[in-house]
Amino acid sequence: MRIIDHPILGRIEPERTIRIEVDGKMIEALEGEPIAAALVANSMRLFRFTKKYNEPRGIFCAIGRCTDCVMVVNGIPNTRTCVTQVEEGMKIETQYGSGSIR
Hints:
The structure is a single chain. With 102 residues, this protein is mostly beta strands. It has one domain: Ubiquitin-like (UB roll). 7% of the residues lie in helices and 33% in strands. It contains 1 helix and 10 strands.
C-alpha cells in the first residue's frame, strides 16, 4: 500500500527509490512519500510506545493531527511521520515514551 494522494502533502510523484534506516534495518522508500507510508509499505505497523502504559501505537489519522505516529527521526523525537517526507539516508527509530533528544 502506498499513499500517493495525501490530504496535507498533496499528490506525490515519486521519482526514485531511496533507502532509509528503521531501527537498524535498511528499507526501501519512494522519494517524497511520508515516512509512515514507507513503513506501512514495508509491513511495519508499530511506531511508538506510550509513556504511561507502554502501549504500542501506529498510524491513526495520517494528517498530522494526532501523535500516534511520532518516532525519533535523525535523533529528533516526536516527529510526526505521517507528514514528514522521507529523505535518502534517514535514521528512524521506534519512540519509547516522550523520547529524548540525542
